[in-house]
């Protein structure tokens, strides 16, 4: 800065992030004309710096130099009001952009959720998986399901798939036993831990699957076409046995020691 509130071409260029050549063009076009000092050197005032900020905004809006010149040379042009208006417009544009980004992030999670959903069910008939996905997309809570699955990382979904497949194989071997059987209930505890961890990883502010939560999950699961169909695809009658066993676990184990269980993950 050559003097208080005065800028050389180089100083204004650096301050506002525009090239010296751009300032020369604006000067030649009469859009932002430099002043001339007694020594012949060009300089700009703080008003010129503020006007340049306005010009930069106009250029970002893809306005031509001719259009900008017409605006800034209008006898009714008020720089302060113009800047305040542009600030409001930019804030509005920023808010709109932020909202669009949020929507895109949700869409990314949902698309990733579909992939993770397929990963978990890999090994079952593909036509059934496509059918379940279609059913979920038409369900009022389907978007939330896919968005939740989309929060699981690639490594975690692979680990979850391995863990789920191992659990399913063990459970299929005991579905002939009463739900109160010790082997069945041990697997129910394992199933509870897997479920609890998934909710902790995918639901914001989740406080743990308590007794009421699990009871409601059983109630909803029994009438959820997709959930029932998935279990039945592994073995006929598995859905009823699973939810009976999980409800037994809730009534005889979880209900009496909620505090110890809700933190398991």
TrEMBL record:
Residues 6-74 form the HTH merR-type domain. This is MerR family transcriptional regulator. Signal peptide: none annotated. It comes from Glaciecola siphonariae. Gene3D superfamilies: 1.10.1660.10. Keywords: DNA-binding. PANTHER family: HTH-TYPE TRANSCRIPTIONAL ACTIVATOR MTA, REDOX-CYCLING DRUG-SENSING TRANSCRIPTIONAL ACTIVATOR SOXR. CDD domains: HTH_TipAL-Mta (cd01106). It comes from the Bacteria. InterPro entries: DNA-bd_dom_put_sf, MerR-type_HTH_dom, MerR_fam, TipAS_dom.
């Amino acid at each position: 800065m050559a003097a208080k509130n005065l800028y050389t071409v180089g100083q204004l260029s650096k301050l506002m992030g525009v090239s010296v050549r751009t300032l020369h063009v604006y000067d030649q076009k009469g859009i932002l004309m430099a002043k001339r000092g007694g020594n012949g050197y060009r300089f700009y005032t703080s008003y010129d710096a503020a006007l340049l900020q306005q010009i930069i905004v106009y250029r970002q809006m893809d306005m031509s130099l001719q259009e900008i010149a017409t605006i800034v040379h209008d006898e009714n042009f008020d720089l302060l009001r113009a800047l305040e208006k542009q600030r409001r417009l930019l804030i509005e544009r920023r808010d709109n952009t932020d909202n669009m980004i949020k929507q895109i992030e949700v869409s990314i999670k949902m698309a990733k959720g579909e992939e993770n959903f397929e990963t978990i069910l890999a090994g079952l008939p593909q036509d059934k998986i496509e059918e379940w996905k279609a059913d979920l997309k038409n369900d009022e809570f389907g978007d939330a399901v896919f968005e939740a699955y989309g929060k699981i990382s690639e490594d975690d979904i692979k680990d979850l798939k391995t863990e789920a497949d191992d659990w399913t194989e063990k459970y299929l071997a005991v579905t002939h036993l009463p739900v109160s059987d010790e082997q069945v209930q041990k697997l129910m505890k394992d199933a509870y831990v897997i479920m609890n961890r998934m909710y902790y990883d995918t639901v914001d502010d989740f406080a743990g699957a308590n007794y009421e939560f699990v009871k409601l999950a059983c109630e909803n699961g029994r009438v959820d076409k997709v959930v029932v169909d998935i279990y039945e695809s592994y073995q006929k009658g598995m859905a009823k046995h699973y939810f009976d066993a999980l409800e037994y676990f809730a009534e005889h184990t979880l209900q009496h020691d909620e505090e110890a269980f809700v933190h398991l993950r």
